[in-house]
Amino acid sequence: MSWDDWAAQDAVSLADLIRKGDVTASEIGQQMAAAVELVDPSISAVVELFSDAIDDPASNRTNMDGPFAGVPFLMKDLGPTVKGRLQEMGSLFMQGNRPQVDAYLTGRVRGAGLNIVGRTTTPEFGVCSSAENPAVYVTRNPWDTDFTTCGSSAGTAASIAAGVLPLSHGTDGGGSIRIPAGLNGLIGLKASRGVFSIAPGLSDLTGLVSTQGCLSRTVRDTAAFVDACRGGAPGEFMPYWKADRTYVDRIRSDPPRLRIALSHEWGDYSAPPHFISELERAGRFLEALGHVVEWTLPPIDFRSAFAAQTMCYISNFAQVIQGYLEARSLSHPPADLIEPINIRIWEAGRDMSYHDRYKMQAVFNSVARAFGAFFEDWDIILTPVVARPTPKIGTTEYLTISDNSSVHDWFANLWQFFAYTPLSNLAGIPGISLPMAKQENGLPLGIHAQAGQARDGLLLQLAAQIERALDGKWHSDRTPAVHVTGGSR
Description:
Blueprint: H1 3-7, H2 11-20, H3 25-43, E1 46-49, H4 51-55, E2 71-76, H5 104-111, E3 114-120, E4 132-133, E5 137-138, H6 154-161, E6 167-172, H7 178-184, E7 187-190, H8 204-207, E8 211-216, H9 219-229, H10 247-250, E9 259-262, E10 265-266, E11 269-270, H11 273-288, E12 292-295, H12 302-327, H13 340-349, H14 354-377, E13 380-384, H15 407-417, H16 422-427, E14 431-438, E15 444-451, H17 456-469
Parallel strand pairs: 2-3, 9-12, 9-13
Antiparallel strand pairs: 1-3, 4-5, 6-8, 7-8, 7-14, 10-11, 13-15, 14-15
Helix pairs in contact: 9-17, 12-13, 12-14
């Protein structure tokens, strides 16, 4: 099909074309590979394509009778493992790492009929703000390649924004789906805890803040992905809840009149004036749809919450790195193979006490309870997706190649940028970034909506109502500078 026709399709419509016999799954995969060849030299978003999977989706254990019927799907090079395929996590240290088991979610993705055809870029171990280390790769924003995509689902966001494919995998431990979605003009849902499994290597008891998901261009693609891929593996430490009806069905109707809170002040953090005006504009748009919109804020001790979040990241990532070191019988991270901030994270967190973790978990509990009480009175709260403009390539202060000698100072600086997304991971509540706004330089800016635990369907229902009101044109026919159609329209 022409590139204009290709870019007009979402994953659901591509699956319909395959089922009708208008195209084959292999032909769709080959056009996706051609799209990578066309745009990836400018954005460096795809680490590897699996030619065997593209040529013969059924041989890749793809369920061709699943709802996505063999539509190609890229996995972020982090998180769920794919048996026999490389997973290098954006790290020189992990080069050649080839897992020998599928993650549980990998099976769910295949069962949904998504054909796993390659890997997308990510910062080392998914820690920092963008996939930007010249020793590995530098992933660029398709809207303007002088700027980063942010991350950590960097390559996935860039690939979808550039028109390579409509739907792809992401992970989110503090905004890593929602932030790149918001800064690349996409839809990014972080699901509630208890939706997507992180088995077999982790459970929600140990992973605590991280979850899986996708980025997309349409609400129905995200809804269909959640419907098909949700669910817990045998032996989970917590119940994995089910929706009372499919999200694909739910998003066909508008939500009831909602009470929607607005805030740009998130503890010590606040957005610049232009972001605030864009948030206000989004609020007026929702009022015009019939919702009640007011300025208010959850009663949370934000300083304690961010301190606990920092402790969680340091202790979790330190143990991840320690595990990789032990697997190679190493006593210390090699400085030529692991990035400086990740070494400092390991140093700060490897011997963290149970008492420290206990105090952290007490804060997690109080924050989650405060959000829960807030969402008894309010349906949704809106903020910008970030509190700072998209950085230019080479802004090292947010990267794990930074020379900052203090890992705590590095995280404190990161929170000034990524202020609004991490606490939903702490509390286990859902959040979604919607491409409703623009930065002053024309780059996309996501509007971030959060709701109470297990109210993912409400977020998607509101997102679908907005999408219909915009006639599906989130960007008013604007196209990124790097795009399969030629871009800059």
